[in-house]
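Support reply, case 0932

Customer input (verbatim):
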Amino acid sequence: MKQTEPETIALSYLNALEYCPRRFYYEFVEGDMLVNEFVLAGTLLHEQADQPGHRTTAEGEVQINHLYLASEKLRLTGFADIVEEQDGQFIPVEYKHGRQGKWLNDHVQLCAQALCLEERQPDKPLIAYGFVFYFGSRRRVRVDFTPELRARTEELIRRAFEIAVQPSPPRPLDGKMAVRCRDCSLAPLCLPEEVKQLNSHKGGWLADSLSD
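Our regenerated output:
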């Protein structure tokens, strides 16, 4: 049965969708979340970092912690860990527990935050960049909001609403993308290899029925 289309989608779920559409479906549509040591560590990190308020750095820059964001146009809601104000421009900063990965899921989430901020300041220039701070490596990585990243982010938002109404999860990742399954906390629930085997031996119908 087709799902009801959501009114909004939280910014953080775009991270999951860019990483794996199947993971997005389990987390957003079905509300499933398996907590391992990495997920728990990330949750505790944000509990410490996400204390609402303002502060001024030694350099005179204003920082806003845990700022609520929303976009009526894109139908997004969520929070930015930190928004820095530099020369009248808002710069989103996202905290991540681990190290910088090979994928663009963190970049897309950050870019979506910038799109929300821009919608609230239509008279301001477009936000050129933001930062992701990785606690695992203690590195602050600059992310440029290029036309390509903006287009990818907007397409991902469109796909999120499309996948959210599907009656069953997307198929597991395959090919070179399947390497992402190795470090996914939802692997014990998703069972990507088992589902692939069922699809190959049963023509797909049994795997699909188990995914519903």
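We compared this against your earlier run and they match. Two observations from our side: The chain has a mean pLDDT of 86. The chain is about 40% helix and 20% strand. Please reopen the case if you see a mismatch on your end.
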